[in-house]
Design a protein that fits this description.
The longest helix is centred in the middle third of the chain and has 32 residues. Strand 2, helix 5 and strand 3 form a beta-alpha-beta unit. By secondary structure, the protein is an alpha+beta fold. It is 55% helix and 12% strand. It contains 6 helices and 4 strands; from the N terminus they run αααβαβαβαβ. The chain has a domain of 101 residues: OmpA-like domain (60s Ribosomal Protein L30, Chain: A). A 4-stranded mixed sheet has the order 1-4-2-3. The protein is elongated.
């Protein structure tokens, strides 16, 4: 009986000692090299700024000019961007689908023309959306698939791929909150947003 207990204890100790965790070994030479590379990168990115001394009367004139320039850029840039955004057509999808419907192909072509002409100086963010059916995870994935399909169509028709980013809002960004089929259909879409 004692031999069974002793052999059981020895076996248990062997199993437990095999499961012990080891401390990770850190190669200090690699960390030193990495920190040196990071320091060199930071030093390269930080460049001295040239400055110039200006009299106080010139300073006030310069400040007024800068203020006027910035205000005109903000108002004209954001206004034109918002106006252009409204000209893009949202692309709608069937229930639980991410392929482009035939009635949406002309809208995509119109969006491509707009993206390559008037809105050519802006980047485009495609926002994938879903109705409220399905889990959050599923709807986020479906929204991203919808945005990806629209992106592929835009690129195929000539929009530069580096101008396009995608995001999925899943069911969290509805345009309609009624509990009807027509309302849910309005939420299955990809919207266009312009970025500077």
């Amino acid at each position: 009986m004692k031999s069974i207990v002793i052999s059981s204890v020895v076996t248990a100790l062997l199993i437990l000692s095999g499961c012990s965790s080891k401390d990770p070994v850190i190669d200090e030479t690699k960390t030193e090299v990495a920190s040196e590379i990071a320091k060199d990168k930071v030093a390269e990115e930080v460049a001295p700024v040239e400055t110039e001394t200006v009299s106080s009367s010139e300073s006030s004139v310069l400040n007024e000019k800068v203020t006027l320039d910035e205000s005109s850029k903000d108002s004209s840039g954001s206004d034109s961007m918002e106006k252009l955004e409204k000209n893009f057509s949202s692309i709608y999808f069937d229930f639980d689908k991410f392929n482009i419907r035939s009635d949406m192909e002309n809208k995509i072509s119109g969006d491509v023309q707009l993206a390559n002409s008037t809105a050519s100086k802006f980047s485009i963010k495609l926002e994938g959306n879903c109705d409220e059916w399905g889990s959050d995870e599923y709807n986020f994935a479906l929204g991203l698939k919808r945005a990806s399909t629209v992106k592929k169509s835009l690129v195929a028709e000539g929009v530069a791929v580096n101008r396009i980013t995608m995001v999925s809002y899943g069911e969290s960004n509805p345009t309609c909150t009624d509990k009807t089929k027509d309302c849910w259909a309005k939420n299955r879409r990809v919207d266009f947003k312009l970025l500077p």
